[in-house]
From TrEMBL:
Gene3D superfamilies: 3.40.50.2300, lambda repressor-like DNA-binding domains. This is LacI family transcriptional regulator. Signal peptide: none annotated. InterPro entries: HTH_LacI, LacI/GalR-like_sensor, Lambda_DNA-bd_dom_sf, Peripla_BP_I. GO terms for molecular function: DNA-binding transcription factor activity; transcription cis-regulatory region binding. Keywords: DNA-binding, Transcription, Transcription regulation. SMART domains: HTH_LACI. It holds the Pfam family LacI. Residues 9-65 form the HTH lacI-type domain.
């Protein structure tokens, strides 16, 4: 029989090749039931399946069991490198538990995010992990209406309706300000993130508290319209036009890169003229010039815990809603120094 007419391998063929009953072969190839038989038998069956080219029909199995073993992951901007370690850690946990991920880029606003959720529901996902949450998030409402378990990562709602894993944004910004104060800075500004996002609101709160504790004026604040380099530069223009500063703490690393651009455009040097602190420690931010001092958030740990919480909720829908806050730490590099004079 030639390649064009070869019939696909069957479950019975796998059973015959492994020397087991058809029902045993079925269990060995089912992630939910493989633990019911001995590991040596599972390995023998799986080896036979690989040898003869058998592929389990996941769609048909899902229709029978009402389980798709698919999880949706929705991020606001795939180009933002901070989300790469989060998504990678999520996928690692899902794979270890027999799940696959459908990853969606939802940079088009709330309407687009709800459309994506509806598409994921149509693909019968068993749950979703959202890195897109607003402080009062309509996407979470849509998930609740559809009965789809959801977990938030990196961003939180103001009133926690679903389990959430975030970094300690207030304390992270406090670390940034305390570092600048310890270097001798007194005129410190802040480029904040969008106020409808928890990261923007909480990091601004942390800035205000840390400045007050240091006895310093916290009025030099401009809020960026988005977490992008262009938005960071636009905010930097306004901030530098209005205030005479020696240091700026930004609400994320992309905003800091926008500030870098504006400093160069004005002929100012970092850190000689203005020190800069970022937030997130996204991959490769140590490669810019000068390497960015930033607040490191544990991205992979957040992703891992978010995936574990979602799988726990899927397994036991009555599982309590929890919020996990992970401490961050300051990474000092070349963008901060004592003020001149």
């Amino acid at each position: 029989m030639n390649e064009m007419t070869r019939q696909p391998a069957t479950l019975q063929a796998v059973a015959d090749a492994a020397g087991v009953h058809r029902s045993t072969a079925s269990r060995a190839l089912n992630p939910d039931k493989a633990h019911l038989i001995g590991p040596d038998v599972v390995e023998r069956v799986q080896a036979a399946a690989r040898r003869i080219g058998y592929q389990r029909d996941e769609l048909a199995a899902g229709l029978r069991t009402k389980r798709s073993r698919l999880i949706g992951i929705v991020v606001p901007d795939l180009a933002n490198l901070v989300f790469a370690p989060i998504v990678s850690a999520i996928e690692t946990v899902l794979a270890a538990n027999g799940y696959s991920a459908l990853i969606a880029n939802a940079g088009g606003g709330v309407a687009r995010q709800i459309q994506i959720i509806d598409q994921l529901i149509a693909h019968r996902v068993e749950g979703v992990i959202l890195a897109t949450a607003q402080r009062d998030d309509p996407v979470v409402t849509r998930c609740a209406e559809a009965g789809v378990p959801a977990v938030l990562v990196n961003r939180a709602e103001e009133k926690a309706r679903v389990s959430t894993v975030i970094s300690n944004d207030i304390c992270g910004m406090r670390l940034a300000v305390e570092h600048l104060v310890a270097l001798g800075h007194r005129r410190i500004g802040h480029i904040g993130g969008p106020s409808h996002l928890s990261t923007g609101a909480l990091r601004l709160e942390g800035f205000g508290k840390a400045m007050a504790e240091a006895g310093l004026d916290a009025d030099a604040v401009v809020t960026a319209e988005a977490y992008t380099r262009d938005a960071g530069r636009a905010a930097a223009i306004e901030l530098l036009d209005r205030h005479d500063l020696t240091a700026v703490a930004t609400a994320n690393d992309l905003l800091a890169l926008g500030l870098y651009q504006e400093l160069r455009a004005r002929g100012l040097r970092c850190p000689d003229d203005i020190s800069v602190v970022g937030h997130n420690d996204m991959p490769m931010i140590d490669m810019v010039d000068p390497p960015l001092t930033t607040v490191h958030i544990h991205q992979a740990d957040m992703g891992r815990q978010a995936a574990e919480l979602l799988l726990a909720r899927i397994g036991k829908p009555e599982t309590d809603t929890v919020t996990r806050v992970i401490d961050s730490e300051l990474v000092v590099r070349g963008s901060t120094a004592p003020p001149r004079g």
